[in-house]
Amino acid sequence: MPNFIDRRLNPKDKSLSNRQRFLRRARAQLKNVINKSVKDRGIADVDGRQVVSVPTKGVGEPKFHNSSKGGKRDQVLTGNKEFSAGDRLSKPKGGAGSGAGKDAADGGEGTDEFQFTLSREEFLELFFEDLELPDLVKTNLKEVIAFKPRRAGYTVSGTPTNINVLRTMRNSYGRRIALHRPKQKDLDEIAARMEELERDCGRDGTAPHRIAKLREELTRLERKRRVVPFIDPIDIRFNRFERQALPNTKAVMFCLMDVSGSMGEREKELAKRFFILLHLFLKRRYEKIDIVFIRHTHEAQEVDEETFFYSRETGGTVVSTALEEMLRVVHERYPTQEWNIYAAQASDGDNFSGDSEKCVRMLDDVIMPLCQYYAYVEILDEREADIFKSSDNGTALWRAYREAGQSWDNFQAKRIARPGDIYPVFRELFAKRPKGAASPGLAEARAE
Amino acid sequence: MAKQTRKRKQSLLFEGPEWSFDTLSRTYDAIEEIATQDLGLDVYPNQIEIISAEQMLDAYSSIGMPLMYRHWSFGKHFVREEQLYRKGARGLAYELVINSNPCISYHMEENTMAMQALVTAHAAFGHNHFFKNNYLFLQWTDAGAILDYLEFAKGFIAKCEERHGYAAVEEILDAAHALMDHGVFRYRRTPRGAPRKEEARAQRRHEYEERTFNDLWRTLPKPKDGVEANDAEIEIANRKKKLRLPEENLLYFLEKNSPVLESWQRELLHIVRKIAQYFYPQKQTKVMNEGCATFVHHYIVNALYDQGRITEGAMLEILHSHSNVVFQPAFDDRRYGGINPYALGFEMMQDIRRVCTQPTEEDREWLPEIAGNGDWRGTLRDAWANHRDESFIQQFLSPHLIRKMRLFVLSDNEKDDHYTVASIHDERGYENVRRTISRNYDLGTVEPNIQVVDLDLRGDRQLCLEHTVRDGIALAEKGRDEVLKHIARLWGYEVSLRGIDNLTGETVYKTSTAESEAAA
Fold first, then answer.
1. Is B466 inside any structural domain?
2. Interatomic CA distance for residues A267 and A347, integer angstroms
3. N or C: which end of chain A has fewer CB within 10 A?
């Protein structure tokens, strides 16, 4: 009798730590692949399952083994059909070596590149440069916008349409039993007996007397029936409804970007990561997300994603045009009762002189009251990053936006120079708020 | 189900595809009876473990061992296997068996009961018997201790990682893995005696010299010229002798002699070397091991069927699976991927049985020792115990089987612009076919022969390796220089490699880590 052991319930992921070691090993290659994927993918699909293929460089396992070319070698093959000893077969052109079958190269070679799938977490970790992303699922961002009536017990007042018949009748029945309301059956019985007595009136001398007694009884009962009504106002119950706040499940994300000549490939790619991160966050939170791309030079237009990132425009830079375009789209398609509005703007800080003040006015007056969150990033040259370390000095647009940032909780402005800078922009948004603290929602936004 | 026409001597072991531990155990007992009493197999106690597909992938990626230390390359293999499996490009093995005592075999939970019976016979008896009896396994592996050793290795490496960091451990393991194929002893070394015995031996020799002293020898004239040069040569010879060079076990040499390694690093090399040595017999007995297991399961399930203990349906399923396993496409078939060791092994075992019981005139001429001896069980057991692939094929591949598989030898010489069919399955060709195929299973031929030949500890400490180039087949350049770098990391100084032609003694190529750095 052998020893049977059922191992199926053993802990899984035995090789998980080997996998982690492998990913760490292939880190440099994986990063390249992922950086490329930023270019190749749309904002909304970056988050999907990531099939990456890794070249063996760095994860190769070299071994000494015999070359598959050159020298003199004999191999034995099966299934001879027509050859006899001494036959000659011409070698295939373009390199001698391996003949009909496989030869000695069955060592560590042969698989130069292979594909596999990264999990979401592994991907994001690499994507945002080792940033410990917070547990996105747990962040709470409650914005109460739509209401829906919901049944909530019973009440004694209300409109007749909301009467709950069942409850009302039950109360009425109980009261009637408690107060001994005479039943119709009893009354009918007395009436019948009186009638009978009246018929026998001649034969029985006591009949009139008994009739009088019965009539008295009848009147008493009838009076009682009037005093204790079938349905009393105190029996009546109404269905009670409460207005329940429904968090909106739809969000629209506005991507605003300056596409004038000063925004190069690098700037656009950083901007794309910035948009991706916001999208990832919103995806956790909302069932349906629309993305609106608005690009601007000295005039703004709504475009598709491809055009947004990859077409070039020339012209000046007037930021307020983009805000106007955004407002137009909101009014046209995204009523704030139904949609949570998020905006993300990326720019290199250039703006037409005097326009920045206009932007701030627009933000203060109309846009911020509409938005759940507004994030602005100014993309710096890496060399400039040190110069602009202090947030006080900067371009006119930057200074103007800083002001807006101070008066609105849900406005963030940051300067970024490399992918690692992106995440802190949203730190505010991701930070887990203590319960009861104000959320940066529309309802609580101060109107100044 | 077809009506049973055979006489049912015993009741069915199981019906339907579902298995339970009850049917497994009943079937095991029936199989064991045939294996031990009919075939006379001698096995380690069995431990059969049921695992899921994911666990099977786990086992695959850690070279089939239930316990393994952590290393990124196993993660890489897991990822690759999983990818192939998910795409459906590759099915998983039905079982996996480990040469240990007790002999552990993993059975997949998805197997039907018929398959479980098949793999029980295959792994728990076929492979198990082979592990327990083949001389290579007996000589080189310690089945009783391997699991404990791996447990130790895993813990030790984890501790090293904790103390010295992942990167430091990985660096050594990477280098050691690169040399794994060259970290085995191919022959038993002369045992080094205990110090006291050595002393006694030296004493005896001294006494002998004193006894046989003859002053006459002193008067012999000394050679006059070339004394200086000879001194240098003698010194080299002496130091080679002291280091016991040449040495083909590179890992062993580095472990014992590297000037830069710390003791925990040496221990890592030791672990990798031990594991390489443990698997070395398996590499040399692919055909025999699989042939033995396939023959055993084929015999046993047929016996069960004849006893009426498994249904025709189950038998058909088993045969279907069996014929998939031993399928050998012809060389011009798209599915051809070399000779299938299962097919060759199984055919040879069947052929030996035929030769023992119904020999032809030809068999009596080619295999006189066993032809017609009638005891095919004993003959097979003896072959399984005392051969490895190379010698087994050389000894037992019969002309009958060469004809049946229509084997032929194709020669490829770099100098010619054509291939030559050297021999085919005819009277003149049998010998050459057999020799060639046997040589192709000789690890000594398949793996490059690389040895440490010299180093000067007082000079530049360069480690000199020599590759014996056979038939003009050089090393693949791609991995070569990287492996040399790994060796240099373990050795701490430069490493050079010279390719020497085995016939002419000429240097075919030369490379060293010093040069490649200078070039880069």
1. yes
2. 8
3. C
Cβ-Cβ contacts under 8 Å, A100 against chain B: 331-332, 336, 410
Query: Is B51 in Cβ contact with A78 (below 8 Å)?
Result: no
**B324-363 residues touching A, CB cutoff 8 A:** 328-333, 336-339
Q: Do B336 and A6 touch (CB under 8 A)?
A: no
This prediction's pTM: 0.68
Q: How far is A45 from chain B (nearest CA, A)?
A: 22
User: Which residue from A minimizes the CA distance to B423?
Assistant: A85
**CB burial of residue B240 (10 Å; 0-12, 13-18, 19+):** middle
| One domain, residues A299 and A356 | yes
Task: Give me the count of residues in chain B.
Answer: 520
Distance of CA B92 to the CA centre of its chain: 21
- Is B56 in the A-facing interface, judged by CB distances under 8 Å? no
pLDDT of A394 over the 80 cut: no
In this prediction, residue A140 carries a pLDDT of: 42
A236 & A252 share domain:
no
A404 lies in which domain range?
137-143+248-430
Are residues B386 and B453 part of one domain?
A: no
Whether A5 is in a domain gets the answer no
Q: Is the peptide bond before B246 cis (omega within 30 degrees of 0)?
A: yes
Residues B438, B490: one domain? no
Q: Indicate the number of domains in chain B.
A: 3
Residues 22-41 of B with CB under 8 A from A: 24-25, 28-29
Separation between Cα atoms, residue A426 and residue A377, nearest integer Å: 11
Same structural domain for residues A192 and A316? no
Determine contact, residues A447/A366, Cβ cutoff 8 Å: no
pLDDT interval class at B379 (50, 70, 90):
very high
Report how many domains make up chain A. 3
